[in-house]
User: Fold this.
Amino acid sequence: MKLLSKIYNGIIFAFLYAPIVVLIVYSFNDSKHRVKWGGFTLDWYKELFHNELIMEALWLTLQIAVLAAVISTIIGTMAAVGIYSMNGRLRNLMMGVNNIPMVNPEIVTGISMMLMFVAIYRATGFLRPGFLTLLLAHITFCIPYVVLQVMPKLRQMNKHMYEAALDLGCRPVPAFFKVVLPEIMPGVITGALMAFTMSLDDFVISYFNSGASAQNLSVTIYSMTKKPITPEINALSTLMFGTVLLLLIIVNIRQVRDLNKQKERR
Amino acid sequence: MNEKKIIELRDIAVSFDGEPVLKNLNLSISDGEFVTLLGPSGCGKTTTLRIIAGFITPDSGDVFFDGKRVNDLPAYKRTVNTIFQRYALFPHLNVYENVAFGMRVQKKSNQEIEETVTKMLELVNLKGFEKRSVAKLSGGQQQRVAIARALANNPRVLLLDEPLAALDLKLRKDMQTELKNIQKSLGISFIYVTHDQEEALSMSDTVVVMDNGVIQQIGTPQDIYNEPQNAFVADFIGESNILDGVMLEDYLVEFFGRKFSCLDAGFEKNEPVDVVIRPEDIDIVEPVKGHLTGLVTNVTFKGVHYDTIVDFKGFKWLIQTTDYYPEGSTIGIVLNPEDIHIMKKSAYSGMFGDYSSYSEEFDELGDAVAAAEAEEEAEE
Assistant:
């Protein structure tokens, strides 16, 4: 029985990861043909870094990811504090509202935001599809993940701590920065990492909100696949996979450490 | 202690979600006084403390501090400091910085901060702990840091919200003495919230007994114990046998069909009253010599004395005696005038003071429930 379940697990993981393994292997393939193995090479990576189109897209992707992570972390943290201070029923309602965008199909989120941006552009001439719309879209879908990371830290905090700071003569805003923020910081950082990863990773929402002037990596790759595909894309995808994997591992390690710390405190 | 009023609460009313929590509360506290707000969980004692601290604004009524109305003064501008349940220390700061927090906010000089922190840590016996992380301290040590942190701000009044509830019994006793000593040496007012009647009696100058958002009695510990105003106070503070009686005339009361002389006066002729007899005041004699005779139905050894339950004509009394009377034996009791305390009838009459359902398990169960409720109140 044990062996059977091991085999079953093995098959599942094979199905999940075999395509990625193939992709990674072919990114080192010294041949233009996708099915023939022509020896090991790093040429595709070299070419990748000389491809201006891709480098431009990479630079844009990083800008968007950093900005989206920073801005959504600020907004998401403020939202979490606000929701936390609501009373029971309203708090549950707001958390429900917060969670909807995460389960909503991305394509619905993407199209609805595109429609809204286009409508605003038509009416006011402002928000032409491009860098700004892409950034706004990314901030929007990142916020719920930040709220979800910060909220548990607020719940774990001794709720009298903020009052204790006021009691000792601290005004409300400094009290937040001196006492509450240090306490929820692990959640804030994890939230920022999540937001950064989600932004790097996103294709569907970006596709509808980027416009011709500002295309991020995933949209650029997609448009490249319409032409005969070159192994450069394999190399690029491998790098993206590696980066996202690394970020997710960091997020997971942080969460596990946090759990252990809590256990220690008890 | 002098007679100058430092805090006055006038006609305070508060409700949460339409549920009244405090109803027309009036209370004044003198400079240098140790006042305890005592009552079961949900009686409004913590709410009262939070109104004084400035965390809750009353729906109606006024709060005066030093004669000035402070209803709209935010917590961070009030010269009172609070010791919170479970201390609420700042875990990212060490002991020194926790104690220095209030002075750093006020931008005091480093030298002054260092002097005060050293003095405060000495006061609470934590010298040498400056660089420790507060998360690594024991409950009792955290409690001391909380006290030092609050006192470093040099408050006029210190508010303590069940500060010892999380400590074990032995430590709790030590801290009681220590807190009382600190209060005496600093000469400032302490307002202390607890549901532990023993704590209230042993530490306070004045005890305020509360139930259901209403003050039931204000008085010295002796007053509260010896002259309870109604059945709730008599039952909540210590143990009491509470009987129905009729006040025939001044200094003469009738219960169990027998007349007893007592020390109370000022009631209407033939007014129905509650009669309180403390279990330790009852003298046991041979049945023939007793005012009343009864049958022992249950005996529990408590160390110093035996809790003896005695059935008098179907009404069960608790008698605390150092002598052992076995179950099934018949005894007589003698009641002297000073053993009898008369109270006016109140809404609480008939709810307390009968030991028919008394048993050890019941007692322990009650304690467990009280502890669970205290936890809940902490969660609020």
User: Anything to note?
Assistant: Chain A has a mean pLDDT of 89. DSSP finds eleven helices and no strands in chain A.
